[in-house]
Specification:
The chain is α+β, with helices and mostly antiparallel strands. It has one domain. It is 29% helix and 35% strand. It is built from 5 helices and 12 strands. The strands form 3 sheets. A 6-stranded mixed beta sheet has the order 1-2-3-4-5-10, covered by helices on one side. A 4-stranded antiparallel beta sheet has the order 8-7-11-12, with no helix packed on it. Helix 2 packs antiparallel against helix 5 and helix 3 runs parallel beside helix 5.
């Protein structure tokens, strides 16, 4: 594992060089930005990057994720591809976005909207290198149109933020939140694995 601490503005150039240097070895790069600890890994041109977001929303703990396809063929990505093995041995899988949205339609509140949007935008805009072709910025305006119900607002926020199934052509990328049903508890220490068409991405254990 490579561990780096640097200000957000220095990250874009660094990652371009570092990813190119270690891509062939498929080595995990770890860095911190805007108070979040990120891990990123590239295989066969596909790059997966993630960080745990602070706090929980309803029964969900959340990861902020970006997937970029620098390979030569299309790559399909969806929340269910993400699996987190907690330190106690429990394995939780990413929840499909439609289930999260429906849950928040049932039980969402204004506080859920604030927590979702604040946490995700703080992570996204703290990472100036994230320029998704199919991500949050492209979903936000339509999903967050003015509605009167707080439950619908929470669901709209989730639909804009959640990672949705996407088929990424070469050169395309997406970002989004992967929700894990944890009964309202943080994910805590553990290890993330991601199943993709180019193979299994296995990240370094998170100790705290």
């Amino acid at each position: 594992m490579i561990v780096v601490e640097m200000p957000p503005r220095a990250i874009p150039a660094f990652l371009l060089c570092a990813l190119g240097a270690v891509c062939a070895a498929a080595q995990v790069i770890e860095f911190e930005s805007n108070g979040l600890r990120y891990q990123t890994l590239t295989k066969a041109g596909v790059t997966v990057m993630f960080a745990q977001l602070p706090g929980v929303v309803r029964e969900y703990a959340i990861l902020q994720v970006q997937v970029s396809n620098g390979g030569t063929s299309a790559c399909v990505v969806k929340p269910e591809d993400f699996q987190y093995q907690r330190a106690d041995g429990q394995v939780v899988r990413g929840t499909p976005a439609v289930q999260v949205v429906n849950r928040l339609i049932e039980r969402g509140s204004r506080n859920d909207v604030v927590r979702l949007v604040s946490a995700y935008e703080a992570a996204l805009y703290g990472m100036s290198r994230i320029l998704s072709t199919n991500g949050y910025e492209q979903r936000r305006q339509a999903a967050l149109a003015e509605v009167s119900s707080t439950k619908l607002k929470a669901a709209a926020a989730a639909s804009a933020i959640a990672l949705v199934p996407a088929k990424l052509a070469p050169g395309q990328s997406t970002d989004g939140a992967v929700f894990f049903a944890t009964a309202g508890k943080p994910l805590g220490p553990g290890r993330l694995t991601v199943t993709t068409p180019v193979g299994l991405f296995e990240f370094d254990p998170i100790s705290d």
